[in-house]
């Protein structure tokens, strides 16, 4: 070092000192510069912690699904987020959902699953309420403990938007509210350092959740493919072919289970409201039920075939095409006539008495005809709507593991 310095002239040494001062001043200037303002969230409004569960607590909470300890890898943290979205009339509203994060090392990137919940009829079952026995507190917890980030939207009508009617089985709003939840989750993850998302997204849901999943998948592929790296989609027992399903229900003898009739009624009343058809109850229903339905809506108890409560004139108008308003509403909610680009799996019990198997068969056939190359249908032989859930979960876990 001494020899090196001695070879420099005083002029050179002065130059080096001046250069060093310039560098130091530049560094000081950088340090004194204000940090650039953080990017403001467009969708995310607030996030609050709900709970933290250890691996052992996860096993206990998900025990209702059967022996799960072999699947559980880690604990989880659960948050409630609120975000901006739009209602069916285009008005901006605040919605909510649960965000479940696995407790894994920061150096371990993890993927995200958007889980769309099945039909719920009470506010307590909304994912962001995280009640024991709810989907989020069982399915969500289990998949989160496997090492996935879980986005679990409440949908419009639950959680932060509980004062609004839920748009039951309405394709457009299920898709948009769920997509906006994903956008809010993305903003949340950018603003924290506890966990790293690998940018991969998977979607899954059963029953209304299966229908919502296919609706979301289509919206992402057609409108938001640049925002999300969608890797795979698993749809279970959804009513994808609303038109064919409706025509079967009105013309055939169906189950006399009151809870099933309530759901069919809910769809009809929802479409009448959203599409501003504004028909009186007496237009749709026989005198025996019209007054009850006008007073109680979907909460009326009906213990006979759904087709028997409908006016003959109403059924005729649907069958001969003269009730164009309602037929167009059902057609607008068909979600099977498209060509998925994402690997897609359809699971459905062949003996499902609530959401008929024809929905998944028709979806698969239509997608094949349109040239889809990675769509598969898995019939669950003799499976009912409830008995097929566990098979759906196991197949979904395997499918997502294979496409990682």
Features:
single chain; disordered N terminus; 404 residues; 41% helix; Rossmann fold; 9-stranded mixed β-sheet
What's a concise summary of this model?
This protein is α/β, with parallel strands linked by helices. 41% of the residues lie in helices and 18% in strands.
Task: Give structural notes.
- This protein is α/β, with parallel strands linked by helices and about 400 residues long.
- The protein has two domains: about 45-240 and about 335-400, Rossmann fold; about 240-330, no CATH class.
- About 40% of the residues lie in helices and about 20% in strands.
- It has a nine-stranded mixed beta sheet, with helices on both faces.
- β2 and β3 (about 90-100) form a beta hairpin.
- α3 crosses α4 (about 135-145) and α5 (about 170-190) crosses α6 (about 210-225).
As a percent range, the share of helical residues equals 40-55%
Q: Mind describing the biggest β-sheet? A: 9 strands, mixed
Q: CATH class of the largest domain, please?
A: Alpha Beta
Shape: globular
Q: Alpha-carbon distance between the termini?
A: 55 Å
The secondary structure category is: alpha/beta
Q: How many beta-strand elements?
A: 9
Secondary-structure element order, N to C: HHEHEEEHEHEHEHHHHHHEHEH
Number of domains: 2
What's the number of helices? 14
The gyration radius over C-alpha positions equals 27 Å
For this structure, the CATH topology of the largest domain is Rossmann fold
- The neighbouring-strand order within the major sheet is 1-2-3-5-4-6-7-8-9
């Amino acid at each position: 070092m001494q020899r090196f310095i001695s070879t420099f002239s005083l002029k050179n040494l002065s130059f080096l000192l001046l250069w060093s001062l310039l560098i130091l001043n530049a560094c000081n200037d950088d340090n004194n510069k204000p940090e650039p303002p953080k990017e403001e969230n467009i969708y995310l409004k607030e996030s609050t912690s709900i709970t933290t569960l250890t691996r052992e607590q996860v096993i206990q909470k998900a025990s209702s699904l059967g022996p799960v300890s072999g699947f559980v890898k880690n604990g989880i943290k659960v948050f409630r987020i609120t975000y901006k979205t739009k209602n069916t009339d285009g008005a901006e509203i605040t919605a909510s959902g649960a965000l479940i994060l696995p407790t894994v090392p920061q150096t371990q990137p993890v993927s995200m699953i958007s889980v769309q919940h099945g039909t719920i009829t009470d506010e307590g079952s909304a994912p962001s309420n995280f009640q024991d026995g709810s989907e989020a507190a069982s399915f969500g917890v289990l998949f989160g403990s496997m090492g996935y980030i879980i986005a679990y939207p409440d949908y419009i009508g639950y959680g932060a938007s509980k004062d609004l009617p839920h748009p039951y089985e309405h394709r457009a709003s299920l898709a948009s509210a769920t997509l906006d939840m994903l956008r809010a989750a993305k903003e949340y993850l950018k603003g924290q350092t506890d966990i790293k998302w690998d940018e991969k997204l998977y979607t899954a849901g059963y029953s209304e959740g299966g229908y919502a999943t296919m609706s979301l998948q289509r919206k992402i592929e057609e409108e938001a493919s640049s925002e999300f790296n969608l890797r795979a989609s698993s749809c279970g027992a959804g009513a994808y072919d609303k038109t064919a399903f409706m025509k079967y229900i009105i013309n055939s003898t169906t189950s006399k289970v009151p809870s099933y009739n309530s759901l069919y009624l809910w769809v009809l009343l929802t479409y009448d409201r959203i599409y501003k058809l504004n028909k009186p109850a007496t237009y749709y229903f026989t005198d025996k039920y019209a007054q009850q339905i006008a007073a109680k809506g979907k909460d009326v108890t009906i213990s006979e075939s759904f087709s028997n409560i409908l006016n003959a004139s109403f059924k005729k108008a649907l069958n001969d095409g003269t009730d164009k308003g309602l037929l167009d509403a059902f057609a607008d909610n068909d979600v099977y006539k498209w060509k998925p680009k994402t690997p897609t799996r359809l699971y459905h019990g062949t003996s499902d008495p609530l959401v008929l198997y024809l929905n998944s068969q028709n979806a698969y056939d239509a997608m094949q005809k349109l040239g889809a190359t990675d769509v598969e249908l898995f019939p669950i032989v003799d499976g009912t709507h409830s008995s097929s859930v566990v098979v759906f979960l196991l197949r979904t876990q395997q499918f997502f593991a294979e496409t990682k």
